[in-house]
């Protein structure tokens, strides 16, 4: 005690350093200051341009904004997905490797069991990068697709049965996800994605990534996160995005919010281009979905040669969120355009199954179930052959 005050001396007896448990995540270095948001954004964009050759140059802004969005994931209740599809050796894996270097808590993985994926997503809350999505065609495809579809909106919990304790467990699978593969996925999944069709490079690309530069950028992105996440969240709905359809708006709003003002025009232009592609493909896509339903239901749900429109609707909407369900009236209109006759029964409206017409439609590439893009907007009337209705 000195001068009526206490002096406390602390003596450090020892220091212990305990290694962190291994995780699959890409971690940032300590937060690093950066000059300003726009320069940081342009540096991240330049890193992507240096290491990846995209067909559409507007895509660089989309990927850059996506990276920034992953660092403030808490601010959004809906997250877009990114898809890279194409033949072998066209840059799909390279795109995921770049995102692994720059996204927040990025985890790059390939074929993994569903049970493991559910638990690890909840534990680490990563930006999940799934390479070679062909594993989605395995026996666990439905569960994996369900995880992907449910993981886009915050608050949706997926139940899983714990066989050991014979009780249900609920998992939070929300978070950013990117998928690459040679095989396109179905519309219920791709409608939740901003997709890139990858092609071979037409300019020289470094064979390896600049890891020192990406580490520096992660440190700066971490500092940006600390600053951005403590700001009051803007309530603007961005009037320029309002003409977009509901799902396209959801896909691009987080990117638009995360990008600086100078980059937003490019993101807006890309979103409009994507919307136009969806609208052009919608007519054939909806028809192909209905035709797929007819093919898969005709041996199990047809009674007295009739297939109920409500059964077709249930099949199409089984993996869609309620706000995107397609109604029986719209399905009935499309069935008529395809050439199927409709009749009213005491159970509702049905179509008459015409095998000759089905065989004819099988040879029509417009009704291929491999087509993808789909929009929830109503389509205009689609011309059809009068002869098709007669099954000739």
Structure description:
The structure is a single chain. This protein has 392 residues and is of the alpha/beta class. It folds into 2 domains: 37-259, P-loop containing nucleotide triphosphate hydrolases (Rossmann fold), CATH 3.40.50.300; 282-389, Arc Repressor Mutant, subunit A. Helices cover 41% and strands 12% of the residues. The protein contains 13 helices and 10 strands. It has helices spanning 37-51, 59-70, 92-102, 114-124, 141-150, 187-190, 211-229, 246-258, 264-297, 309-316, 328-338, 355-362, 386-389, and strands at 81-85, 106-109, 127-130, 157-162, 167-172, 177-181, 193-197, 306-308, 342-345, 348-352. The strands form 3 sheets. The protein has a 5-stranded parallel sheet, with helices on one face. A 3-stranded antiparallel sheet has the order 8-10-9. Helix 4 links the parallel strand 2 (106-109) and strand 3 (127-130). Helix 1 (37-51) packs antiparallel against helix 7, helix 9 packs across helix 10 (309-316) and helix 10 crosses helix 11 (328-338). The longest helix is centred in the C-terminal third of the chain and has 34 residues, at 264-297. It is globular. 35% of the residues are buried. Residues 369-392 have low confidence and may be disordered.
